[in-house]
Design a protein that fits this description.
The structure is a homodimer.
Chain A (H helix, E strand, L loop, with lengths): L12 H4 L3 H7 L4 E5 L4 E3 L7 E5 L3 E7 L5 E7 L7 H5 L7 E6 L1 E7 H10 L8 H25 L2 H13 L6 E3 L2 H8 L3 H13 L3 E4 L2 E4 L2 H7 L2 H12 L26 H9 L2
Antiparallel strand pairs in A: 1-7, 2-6, 3-7, 4-5, 4-6, 8-10, 9-10
Chain A binds a DNA duplex through helix 8 and helix 11.
Amino acid sequence: MIESHKLNLGQNHILDSLSVAEYQRLSPHLELVVLPLGEIIYEPGDELRYAYFPTTCIVSMLYVMESGAPAEIAMVGNDGIIGVSLFMGGGTMPNRAVVRSVGYAYRLRAQLLLQEFNRAGGVRNGTLHDMLLRYTQGLITQIAQTSVCNRHHFLDQQLCRWLLLSLDLLPSNELIITQELIANMLGVRREGITEAIGKLQKAKLIECRRGLITVLDRPGLEERACECYQVVKTEFERLHLASRYAPSASYIPIHSGGLLRNESLSSRQARMKQG
Amino acid sequence: MIESHKLNLGQNHILDSLSVAEYQRLSPHLELVVLPLGEIIYEPGDELRYAYFPTTCIVSMLYVMESGAPAEIAMVGNDGIIGVSLFMGGGTMPNRAVVRSVGYAYRLRAQLLLQEFNRAGGVRNGTLHDMLLRYTQGLITQIAQTSVCNRHHFLDQQLCRWLLLSLDLLPSNELIITQELIANMLGVRREGITEAIGKLQKAKLIECRRGLITVLDRPGLEERACECYQVVKTEFERLHLASRYAPSASYIPIHSGGLLRNESLSSRQARMKQG
DNA sequence: TGCTTTATGTGCGCTACCGTACCGACTGCG
DNA sequence: CGCAGTCGGTACGGTAGCGCACATAAAGCA
């Protein structure tokens, strides 16, 4: 699970923003790990032993209801960190973090993160302390906007928002995920997603195969999405938190050829379906 | 607007938790102010000149959509602070903060808050820095749970949650608010609220007059509410953030006789209806 | 007092999404 | 290859909440 310390380094936005001194202190302790689809980073109430800085993976923060039905609170990729409760002081969270898209992440022992977080002398600009809090503020906006979107917008608009937010965390224009999982994330029926995807396909915005969605027309998606996507994206840019992959004005589609395709999609996803 | 520095002091949970040293540094700069219904504390993008520590008022964080329709993201009372963006580093937020229930709050110049926040030596336990971050984590849970609730639960359940959360921020069992405003907060039709309130009245859980809701049976409300209320409340208690008014196990109803009734309900509320 | 404003209650057709059921198609595995 | 398991498409009745249009009632004001 643990790979070279050098490979792929510097792909997480928070790590990229560290001062030289901080980076030198932390980098020896950063371990690059692969996070497989369905891996649970923490459960409600779990004390974290590590914080994770995703580079190519995407992790969902899910609330799992008493009924067992999950709902996505927020998604975290190479723009952020998993383990906010560590430095925010709560220690744990009442939700679950689960890997939604295979990929790499750097992990750092909780204690070391805290040590660096609390180090901060007088000046804080550009420090880890500063970046982590700014990221957390961005997270608040993402969560809040999800709430608004849940209430007010049509499912196909929500799907556009969700696709775009996911896409911004990925290096290609392909999303490896089943409709059932999307339904879980958005907290709706699987059939509803089928219908919404059908609409987007008819509009030539996306193209689908089993467990794979290819975005054909990103600007078209943005146009069709509700305001929520832009609100979140603009706020992240303002906070200097935008993902390394997030395109701003112009957009040139990339074809990865599915480099990080999941080996065993089905078996892994079984774990994610329920509590 | 500015009242005695001593009157009513020590009713905000964050201020109450400060160390003696911190309290001594800050208290000379805390101004007790009345926040009237409908007062806008900040608009999206506004740089804050003051942070506010509510004691008896309730402030809503609203997102105002492009259509002009508002939706409540979170509510803040004597358990928290208005002005999270100050210490989180973003400076501004993409939402609006508006007073939903008249009352008092302590205000503190932004610069002084930041100064104290950044002071923190090695030990942080029990400091303002610590409390503010822990509160912010609680806020995240509240926002996230609102999102889940929006998606999954019936309107009358959501109303129960909302009533209970509001009640926990108030010293009596009376809520001074119109159905129209509740509808705005929950992001639904006014008629929907009328219907939901009707159900709760039939169940003898509440009693209503124009612009006034009296809670008759709190345990009944809790039973009828969805899990979301308990999740938020439990998390706030775990983080030592519970409002001074929030009852835990046992509950004895209080009759204030409507001490802080709004003088001109209607005119004020006109401002809140739209963008 | 009577008039105006504002809050609340009610009815009715509409629709986005739900719950359920079922079927075909793709994929991975022996 | 053929089978089993999973994924995706479709259909259909049900319903929570919407949009609209009024009616009623309570509070404020002159």
